[in-house]
Amino acid sequence: MEYYAGIDVSLECSSVCVVDGNGKIFRESKVASEPAALIGWFTSLGIGLGRIGLEAGPLSQWLYAVMKQAGLAVELLETRHVHDAFKAMPVKSDRNDARGIAQLMRLGWFRPVHCKSVAAQEVRAMLTARKLVQSKLLDVENSLRGILRGFGLKVGKTTGTDFAGRINELVKGHPNLEVIAEALLKVRTVLLSEFKAFEKRAGRMSLMNAKARLLMSTPAVGPIISLTYAAAIDDPARFTSSKQAGSHFGLTPKKHQSGETDRSGRISKIGDASVREALYQAAHIMLTKPIKGCSQLKSWAMRIAKRAGMNKAKVALARKLAVIMHRILKDGAPFNPATKANAATA
Fold it and tell me: Is residue 85 part of a domain?
């Protein structure tokens, strides 16, 4: 008889459940959330496991990679599907989640998730850290503006270089505000320095990354956008068609059809939000800036803008860019505006 297992991963200990082919619980336990501990526990059972499932999460990719190398038939499950499958569960607990995942493995009612390579995870970690520093930098600047506004001191429009000078000018003669401004400007100086370092690092990484270099041949696509997209795709071969890239990143409309009802909604917004944001940014630049080499794409998007509005045109162009950029990665050839293959594929 074949057996199936489910793992509900937690930081310290994971709940594990093994069921047989009839769905009867064979063994369940709490195991340390370490690859060696989990591999040892499954090996000690002395049975053949058809599938082992664990929900995608922060620790899951690390556990999945090591367990896969050990020869276990492990699968990563999409979080949304697992959540929807357990909606009818009256009691939510780690033990019941492990049991539910084991039953999903037995029945085959799951969608496997691609586990990104270590290189792609490292790029994502760098981009995440960069974005965190950028957001905190903006928070400090906006907080300074808000504090001074309460005293009628308006900062107004500034650049990165004259922001500190403008703040010091406004707080002069206000002892308490001078103390606040001095402290926050010191924090801003550190954050700005680290953010610039991340920007330089991203530029170097994009030049060393063959996929990112290819993607940067696309108009309006720079180091950050190219690295974000390349890390998210990781392996272009996992998509059978380039058209799937648009829906994978939530850039296609939702659809509801039942009986006489048939309507299309807004884009689904499933998948990686950072990639969706990067593609939308590239589309915005292409439509609002004088970018060379994209006349056909820009004309196509502007025709959509005339009948549906600029926002929808940007989303449509972002979806087309997702398709084109995947085709670039799959073919290993740079963007070529002279060919009609890109437009036909999209």
Answer: yes
d(CA 102, CA 109): 11
Q: What is the b/e burial string over 299-308, where b = at least 16 CB atoms within 10 angstroms of the residue's CB?
A: ebbeebbeee
Q: Which residues contact 69 (CB under 8 A, 6 or more apart)?
A: none
For residues 198 and 225, membership in a common domain is answered with no
Same domain flag for 16 and 96: yes
User: Helices 175-208 and 118-149 meet at what angle, rounded to 10?
Assistant: 160
Residue that terminates a domain, selected from 72, 107, 142? 107
Residue 139 located in a structural domain: yes
Q: Which of 66, 79, 145 is nearest to 110 (CA)?
A: 79
**CA torsion 88→93→95→97, rounded to 10°?**
40
- Residue 33 DSSP label: S
- Pairing status of strand 49-55 against strand 25-32: unpaired
Domain, as residue range, for 149: 118-208
Of the three residues 76, 107, 138, the one that is the final residue of a domain is: 107
* 128 and 200 assigned to the same domain: yes
pTM metric for this prediction = 0.88
With 50 as the cut, is the pLDDT of residue 41 above it?
A: yes
Q: How far is CA 4 from CA 47, 52, 92, 101, 110, in A?
A: 10, 6, 21, 9, 13
Instruction: Kindly report the CATH number assigned to the domain that includes residue 22.
Output: 3.30.420.40
Q: Hey, what amino acid is at 189?
A: T
The C-alpha atoms of residue 156 and residue 147 are separated, in whole angstroms, by 13
pLDDT above 90 coverage of the chain, percent: 79
d(CA 39, CA 58): 19
Tell me what pLDDT residue 6 has.
Answer: 95
Please give the torsion angle defined by the CA atoms of residues 142, 145, 150 and 153, in that order, rounded to the nearest 10 degrees: -170
Integer Cα distance of 245 and 194 in angstroms: 33
Number of domains in the chain: 3
Q: Using CA atoms, how far apart are residues 33 and 40, in angstroms rounded to an integer?
A: 12
Query: CA-CA distance, 150 to 165, in Å (whole number)?
Result: 19
